[in-house]
């Protein structure tokens, strides 16, 4: 099975990611992914919401006495006034990864909330960077007074670097050295792949196989050389009752599979061929 880039013809930002471009509008890319789940996503409404929040923030940010005070105004507006917060249920519900649903419900994953914070902040002249840290996606601000982090999952709390490392130790169990190495800006592909992996895990846990398959197609489009992604697409094609598509993928995977997986893939290939013959 070869993936046709034309299937994403309406997803201009995702096509940029497939071409390894970096000039990606991450809000648009996230909404394009959300459209897989909800074909009626209203892009304009989401952008208007972001613009309206920025309009509310301009005064408080302009009158802030200190950079950290300006950063705290983001949390006061987005979390305090508009209820945008992290919630445990977001980790087991696809809506926590869908930007328009996060805006509607106020509940999201750290990565979704971070994208909203970054978009609103840039409208008011605050350049936040996305940080794909282990255990928690956060945003980073580099200013004349040093480096600070915002945790959108916890009400937009402003953290020093030491406080951020302590938080990430608690959420991930990683060592301080591992965490410090991760505290750099994430590129657009890394961000979108993390969104997709979150969705994939949620759909698989809930046995929503067609939705998981759609998500996996996007992952393979971004990582076409990855054996593990193509293997997962083959297995999800079987789960989603697509044996014809699974056969090509399984045949391809069998050629490069590690020894420990060859028997399992061979069995899946036999099942897929049997299903296809029965259907025909």
Itemize the secondary structure elements and their pairings.
Blueprint: H1 12-18, H2 26-37, H3 43-62, H4 67-81, E1 85-86, H5 99-105, E2 107-108, H6 110-123, E3 128-133, E4 136-143, E5 146-151, E6 157-160, H7 161-172, H8 176-182, H9 188-205, H10 209-222, H11 227-239, H12 243-256, H13 259-279
Parallel strand pairs: 1-2
Antiparallel strand pairs: 3-4, 4-5, 5-6
Task: Describe, in plain words, how this protein is organized in 3D.
- 62% of the residues lie in helices and 10% in strands.
- It is α+β, with helices and mostly antiparallel strands and 280 residues long.
- It folds into 2 domains: 5-182, C8orf32 fold (Roll), CATH 3.10.620; 225-279.
- It has a 4-stranded antiparallel β-sheet with strand order 3-4-5-6, sandwiched between helices. The chain has a two-stranded parallel sheet with strand order 1-2.
- Helix 9 (188-205) packs antiparallel against helix 10.
- It starts with 11 loop residues before the first helix and ends with a helix.
- InterPro entries: SirB1_N.
- It comes from Stratiformator vulcanicus.
- This is Protein SirB1 N-terminal domain-containing protein.
- Belongs to the UPF0162 family.
- Residues 52-197 form the Protein SirB1 N-terminal domain.
Keywords:
280 residues, alpha+beta, C8orf32 fold, 2 domains, 4-stranded antiparallel sheet, two-stranded parallel sheet, 6 strands, 10% strand, SirB1_N, Protein SirB1 N-terminal domain-containing protein
CATH class category label of the largest domain: Alpha Beta
CATH architecture of the largest domain: Roll
Strand count: 6
Mean pLDDT figure = 94
Number of helices: 13
Question: How far do the termini sit from each other?
Answer: 19 Å
